[in-house]
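User: I'm preparing a small set of examples for a lab meeting where we compare how different chains pack in three dimensions. I only have the primary sequence for this one, and I'd like the structure in token form so I can line it up with the others. Please keep the answer compact; I'll paste it straight into my notes.
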Amino acid sequence: MDNLNTQLINEYVQALGQDVFIQTVELYEQQAQAYLHQLGEVAKIADHVQWQLQCHAMKSAAGNMGLQQLHAMLSSLEHSQETALQLTQRVEQLTQLNQQSLQQLKQWLAQG
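Assistant: Understood. Below is the structure token output for the 112-residue chain.
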């Protein structure tokens, strides 16, 4: 569960209740798909300004969900000046890490 900040997640679950937090996870999943789509589009043309904006938005959302490894990766990529090809590869990496993190989060919630 190293992808997760379980202390933060546990605090949210205690404050909101598990059902509400699961709804929040579902909302994040939808929003993350939109962020990843936008990152893919701006990566194709290496639009570094929009890349930064989209990374920042997704970084905030991931951090709020307790997805600490994804948050850290987005933080490190936020000011990237890489080429379109490199940015496109980063989107693939982000997509995989997002999926892994969400899977771990759901497993953690199922155990609780």
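A couple of notes for your slides: The chain has a mean pLDDT of 96. Residues 6-111 form a domain with the Four Helix Bundle (Hemerythrin (Met), subunit A) fold (CATH 1.20.120.160).

User: Perfect, thanks.
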